[in-house]
Structure prediction request, 709 residues.
Amino acid sequence: MSRLSAFGGRAALGLLALAPSMALAAGPDLGSVQQQPTNWPAIGMFLFFVLFTLGITYKAAKGTKSAADFYAAGGGISAGTNALAIAGDYMSAASFLGISGLVYTYGFDGLVYSTGFLVGWPIVLFLIAERLRNLGKFTFADVASFRLNQTAIRLISATGTLVVVALYLIAQMVGAGKLIQLLFGMPYLYAVVIVGALMIIYVAFGGMKATTWVQVIKACLLLGGATFMAGAVLYHYDFNPDKLFAAAVQVHPSGDKIMAPSGSPSSPVFSPIDTLSLGIGLMFGTAGLPHILMRFFTVSDAQAARKSVFYATGLIGYFYILTFIIGFGAITFLMNDPNYFKLAAGCTAEAAKAGTCTFDKIKDLIGGAANMPAVNLSAAIGGPYFFGFICAVAFATILAVVAGLTLAGASAVSHDLYAQVFARGRTTEKSEVNISKISAVVIGIVAIGLGYIFETQNVAFMVGLAFSVAASCNFPVLLMSILWRDTTTLGALIGGLVGLIAAVVMVVLSPDVWVKTFGHAEALFPYKNPALFSMPLAFLTIYVVSKLDRTRRAQHERAAFDAQFVRSETGIGADSAHAH
Amino acid sequence: MSATQSAGPPATSHVQPLPGVVGTLDNPVADPRLDRVSQNPIFQTLVRERNRYALVLTIAMLVVFLGFIGLIAFDRSLLATKVASTTSLGLVLGIGVILAAFVFTGIYVARANTRFDALAAELTRSLAR
Prediction:
């Protein structure tokens, strides 16, 4: 096995001192990173991916004429393809690298994220997917504003969308910059600019069609690579997980504790309330992520929407089981091999093996234990070329996620804010699509700028906050407007705002931001995750305000529920995204 | 009208067979065909059955997941119980939650593909009469 040749030698890597902060919920939080020697196999494979996806974008651009093409790929995506695209949109670098890193560090605790990220999908299927397809056209605001006031509801939905997109995008850009610096040996700013430029090209020229295929290809590459890694690990232990766990317990510094909740204060699942709040946020946040909800408009009907969630749940669940095996594989393959650790000066790998000098199996892992166990494992299993492949896959993973986010953000600007709030419906299809393309360019440039500004900031809390905002603003507004007759515009608007503001304020006052970023002595809000409080607050506000709303408009809105109900339940009268 | 018309109350929508939602705020127009649908016994059966099915499965998923999270939060020693030489109950339950999510979606989809889609087709036939 070629070990670290792909890294360009241990000496260079010795410079990497990354705090193993648990960045998980989060995008890859790589701390400060030293640039690496240029990694040619990874760059070669990544270039191939880029050229291939640009070819697809060129083809998609020629076939993208109408608004339906741009936002919803003409509504002609099959359930199977959409399932792969959903998986590609959802399986971020944070879940691949972050969850396996969490398992490497704490063992069992990683399961909270794997399960939390997955259990939102059945909720999406049972409550949302089919109704969304029946009621909407391009964005979830179409659905929430179906019988409510267009201006007000699109304003709150677009705000929720843009906040989620901005938070998620910053975390992805900063993570991408650091990851690529580390994996490819490219300067941070180059990496951020490349990611930004590619996502602009995919979205502005290829719209939903190109974005979908980028996500499908990325999903296949990621699932293929992860399957190979997990398979190689299990093969080593005769496909007996118990043997794998036994070997992991023997080498892990925490021993048998990795088989159960760690209770470690640094673990994200330390306190009971935080664990519950995290679980609630992950579960219901999924049902409010704008880039995910948008994918349901790319299929022809509610049946296809339903099937795509079912397949996607299978793919994503399978993937999370793989990340778990990969995390344990990293423990058994890496922890006894000093080649993968940053050793103290004067300590050689041979000396460390002989036991004359020691290293910390968590803190000293090359590249940091928060995100790098899976990548190091790929080198241990498959040598420099497989290592290069996994690096390229990690880059492709980020690209597919940011493309989906950019498209969702651009659609909120053009389809919701421009067409319905500013132009009040008096616009043409062509100018709306143009606004969308311009928005994609602007969002891309802003994302590059934010990625640059936030380089040295701790962005670990941002994906968690994005899920919390989605669970506390988008999800309550959407669910209540679909399911509860008495929901009024005022209720949805104020409830959504309260949920949004509550989630953001609670996170700002939390230990992660108030103490770690602003340097105050004590957090004003004691928990890291706000969803347990902010989401019920949003639902309660929608309920109370709607009940108190006695305006004439509110009466009309309640009366209009029957018509919405028939269509949401049957699809009778539903638009197809096909251009007529 | 341009395709930028919203999916929300498009008064002039011309999609078939029921033109979107009736009326706008300023001019609420009851679609005469609406009652035919909402009063239709097949529609009522479809909605009642599907919503009950979705509700039961949603509650089941919540119980499974929040039960798992609750055990992590409040009973760590139970999760540490060994079920094999090293494998703990916690790992098995965690993988179980992942499988449960997939199985629950499968149960819903199987039911929807057969019973609910059949009811919906029957409803369309009944409305066409």
Confidence is low (pLDDT under 50) at residues 1-21 of chain B. Chain B touches chain A through 73 residues (CB under 8 Å). The first helix of chain B runs from residue 33 to 38. Residues 39-128 of chain B form one domain.
